[in-house]
Amino acid sequence: MGKVVVPVGPQHPALKEPEGFSLTLEGEKVVSATVRLGYNHRGIEKACEERTYTQNIYLIERICGICSHTHSTCFIQCVEELAGVEITSRAAYIRTLVGELERIHSHLLWLGVAGHEIGFDTLFMYSWRDRELVMDLLAMLTGNRVNYGINTIGGVRRDVSSEQIKDILKTVDKLEERTKYYIEVLTQETTIVQRLAGVGRLSKEDAIRLGAAGPTARAAGVKRDTRKDDPYAAYGEVPFEVITDQNSDVLGRGIVRVKELMESYKIIRYVLERLPEGELTVKVPKKIPAGEAISRYEAPRGEDVHYVKSNGTEMPERVKVRAPTLANLSSISHMLEGGYLADVPIIIAAIDPCFSCTDRMITVTDREKDSKSMLDWNKLRAYSIDWHKERGLDFSAISHLREDGR
Amino acid sequence: MIKEEAIVQGLKDTFGFSDETVIIKRARRITADVTIHEYREVIAYLKNEMNFTMLCTITGLDLTDTFQAIYHVGNDEGVIVDVKLTIQKQKPVIDTITDIYEGTALYERELIDMFGIQVKGLPEGNRYPLPDGWPVNDHPLRKDWKSVAKA
Amino acid sequence: MSGGKGLCSLYISPEKRKFIMFDKLINWARMKSPWIIHFNTGSCNGCDIEIVSTLTPRYDLERFGVQQKGSPRHADVLVCSGPVTLQTKDRIQRVYEQMTEPKFVVAVGTCASSGGVFTGCYGVSGGIDSVVPVSAYIPGCPPRPEAIIDGVVKLLGSLEKKEEEEKK
Are A209 and A299 in a shared domain? Predict the structure, then answer.
């Protein structure tokens, strides 16, 4: 490779920055890309072996603060299977309700982040303002905006009142109006379509070959959704569509997410209109009989997989977690290669990665100039926004989004 | 449960597995105990003949006397087959399956970092998930490794 | 300098909350428009999202001169989340060294304050103060955006007091 040139940015030359991404360029195009993980490696699986199942709920919930209900439910499903218990219908419906609210907040969060990455901060402000409505609902239902703690082994810890149901349905109506509008923005706003269409291509064959999951796979036409394929909670009874898109690009990933929001509203209405009577929990012994179980959950980002091995004590023998972002990592390199450096931020953001990518350093090796430099994410984003501005795609020119008439 | 039975029958017919080796645990869950000599063929068979398009993850375990690697493969009907490979502890070496399922390098690197299982044929790449400075022969998920020692 | 007491963790109606905040923020903005840099040292992202939320319309910190900066050299306050994983330990030390005086560190969330639920996990070092000196702690899992703002305001309020005392 090329010789090392003085790194860009305020780093001490003698100290090595742990790089997050490594890109090799020829001109303005990326010819090879690798992602380095491990920043967030905390040692959770080992810690699980040294804590009780109940203590582990609180640890596992915090694997990811955006899909904490996902991880908590997925883990608890394993434990309930090992204990040989079945939760009540009411508990299953409440888990589904919180799961869909989580999906909504996560997709709206993503919409804002994607907007920020391409320099469309108005979209970021609008979607995060709408997202606050969901945060209020989650806080009302569970007592917290994040890390809800609604689950216990054997069911759920809190009930839903008829007053709360009314509030949720009213909010869902509001959100549905806003979402119809976001769908319009993604499909008809010329600047957005020009900016995102054709970017970060991942064909259906490649998506399957590389093991992509969630909206990343569905946007390539792969009709894969754990809620339908391996149903859990109340999903076996709730009618909804699996949203796919044939564009196989970043725009498609956005469209899949906003259309999934509409399905989430449907699911929530169905669940609340038919919420069965019954207890919230069933009894589960503290010592879980020996065995193995594997459970899956459709997180906002894709399939989450948990494996638990029990040994007859209060603590698990082994806990294995495969979060969805890991499934999409092989696809990232593939999507970045052959594309422009200026498209790197949005392509990575489009898989909705569950790691804080903005702290990652990016090593850029320029094959033609035979040089190597380091950028931080903010610099790369700024470069990307300017590059597209030069080509007529300027989101700062869009100072407001058309309101929905209210 | 017809689908699961067809899968199990296929495995029995192709590899001569017994009733104790391949088991239907419940709807959509099958386990198969395999040896080092056939695990790659079993995995390839499930992918190519039985349409198991997904390798969900690989779980490494320390069973005190041996190691174990469980390859969790899934199909589009929600069925998962846990292909359980027993690995000897004295010199734990297995072959990669990245030629069968491409996106699995990270899962195999976890086996290396966390258990010290060698995986032959893995393409070059950074270690995962342990940080760069982590000592080479230190494997946290082994049963004789205690968290408290490394605060 | 602990910011742990008397935080906005009680339920206050949105209107009243806004009123209390605005009052404090206006005073605070008069003394200083702090520039912050936000750094995640291995958090689950829960706290990070709440920190970013403070910049969105409902809380809108930017009206009061608070700006997020990308470079440590331009920042006054380092806002940190997470239990300091081994991978991020060196990096946060470096970021702190690159900031110019006067500089302050705010540990947002229980993990940043003490390691939280990850205490004892082999991949984490502990709270932020195991690596750099912390000026204010904002506990919570995660703390609400109002609590984050309250903590930062308290920090700056105590600095103003210190300045006044030094003048005497």
Answer: yes
* Single residue among A258, A293, A323 that ends a domain in this structure: A323
* Boundary (domain end) residue, out of A291, A323, A355: A323
> C140 is written with which tokens?
């919570």
Instruction: State residue C22's pLDDT score.
Output: 62
User: Where do we find the tokens 């391996």?
Assistant: A230
A236: CB partners within 8 A, 6+ apart: none
What pLDDT, on the 0 to 100 scale, is given for residue A13?
36
Helical (H) or strand (E) element with A362: strand A361-366
- A385 in reach of chain C (CB within 8 A): no
Q: Identify the weakest region by mean pLDDT among A17-31, A174-188, A302-316.
A: A17-31
Those residues whose C-beta lies under 8 Å from the C-beta of residue A56, and which sit 6 or more positions away, are: A48, A75, A316, A319
Q: Is the bond leading into B92 cis (omega within 30 degrees of zero)?
A: no
Identify whether residues A247 and A331 lie together within a single domain: no
In a domain, A186, yes or no: yes
C85: chain B residues, CB-CB within 8 Å: 131
Per-residue pLDDT of chain C (168 residues; tens, 9 = 90+): 333 333 444 455 666 666 566 655 655 554 567 788 888 888 999 999 999 998 888 888 776 667 777 778 888 889 999 999 988 888 899 889 999 888 899 999 999 999 999 999 999 988 999 999 999 999 999 999 999 988 888 887 787 777 677 677
**Helix extents (H) in A84-161:** 89-117, 121-142
Statement to judge: residues A191 and A332 lie in one domain: no
Query: Are residues A231 and B78, on separate chains, in Cβ contact within 8 Å?
Result: yes
Residue of B nearest to A331 (CA): B103
- A63 — contact with chain C (CB < 8 Å)? yes
pLDDT exceeds 60 at position A394: yes
CATH number at residue B79: 3.30.460.80
What ipTM was reported for this prediction? Answer: 0.96
Chain C CB contacts of A68 under 8 Å are 44, 46
Domain containing B97: what range?
2-138
Which among A43, A112, A356 is the nearest to C40, CB-wise? A356
Distances from the Cα of A297 to the Cα of A145, A276, B26, angstroms: 21, 22, 18
d(CA C120, CA A312): 24
pTM of the model: 0.91
pLDDT tens digits for A135-145? 999 999 999 99
Which amino acid, residue B2?
I
Which domains does chain C carry? 14-167 (3.40.50.12280)
Distance from CA of A35 to the nearest CA of B (A): 9
DSSP codes of every residue in A185-253: HHHH-HHHHHHHTTSS---HHHHHHTT--HHHHHTTT----HHHHS--TTTTT---PPP--SS-SHHHH
Report the C-alpha gap between A49 and B146 in whole angstroms. Answer: 10
Packing angle of the helix pair B39-48, B2-15 (nearest 10 deg):
140
Radius of gyration of chain A (CA): 22
pLDDT at C9: 41
Specify the amino acid at residue B62: D
pLDDT tens figures, B128-142: 999 888 888 899 999
Count of structural domains within chain A = 2
